[in-house]
Every structure is written in structure tokens, then in C-alpha cells.
Amino acid sequence: MVDAGGQQAPEKTIGPYELFQQLGTGQFGNAYLAQHGASKETFLCVKIFKNLEIATLKTVEKEIMAAAVAPHINVIGIKDAG
Questions:
Q1: Can you give the pLDDT at residue 2?
Q2: Cα–Cα distances in angstroms (integers) from residue 39 to residues 36, 50, 69, in the given order
Q3: According to the model, what pLDDT value does residue 9 have?
Q4: Chain-centroid distance, C-alpha 14
Q5: How far is CA 70 from CA 23, 27, 75, 77, 79, in A?
Q6: Which pLDDT does position 7 carry in this prediction?
Q7: What CA dihedral angle connects 24, 26, 29 and 32, to 10 degrees?
Q8: DSSP string for residues in 17-37
Q9: Residue ranges of the alpha helices (H) in the chain?
Q10: Sheet containing 17-25: which strands, arranged edge to edge?
Q11: CA 5 to chain centre
Q12: β-sheet bridge partners, residue 25
């Protein structure tokens, strides 16, 4: 969707993030091209998880923590989780 100024308009907003288009779907949820609504920082990817069982959620939380403290060129950086 494009707004009157010729800019791509967000499809929806989740928390502080404006979601522009779905990038993909996986076992745990969907990934979207997004931008922080207030700061308009560089585009990023927001993953919205499907209903996860507690054990799966704990695994995802561990992976988030590991990625946040061990940056690597082949691993996407973590900006926010919640």
C-alpha cells in the first residue's frame, strides 16, 4: 500500500513497530518487514510467533538470549523481544 506522499504505508502496527509486508512463514510464526514507528530507524524484520507451547517458548527464549550476547555475521541481530 502507498500513501498520498508516495511512501509505502504500513499494513498494520504491532507495539511500536509498523509492519509493511510479510517476508515469510515458518514453523513458529510469520516474519514481516517492519520499521520502528517513532524513530523510523532502518527497516528490520519482526517475527510474530504463533501459539507456542511453554517448552517451545522456553527454547525460543534461549535462542534469543544466545543471539543477543553472541553476535555473528551469519546470525541476525536482536533488537527487541517480548
A1: 39
A2: 6, 27, 24
A3: 61
A4: 10
A5: 25, 24, 9, 9, 13
A6: 56
A7: -10
A8: EEEEEEEEE-SSEEEEEEEET
A9: 54-69
A10: 12-14, 17-25, 29-36, 44-49
A11: 25
A12: 30
Q: Which amino acid is at 79?
A: K
CA 58 to chain centre: 18
Burial 65-75 (b: 16+ CB within 10 A, else e): eeeeeeeeeee
State the residue for C-alpha cell 551469519.
74
Q: Note down pLDDT in tens along the chain; length 82 residues.
A: 434 344 566 678 888 889 999 999 988 888 899 988 778 777 888 888 888 788 888 888 888 888 788 777 877 777 777 7
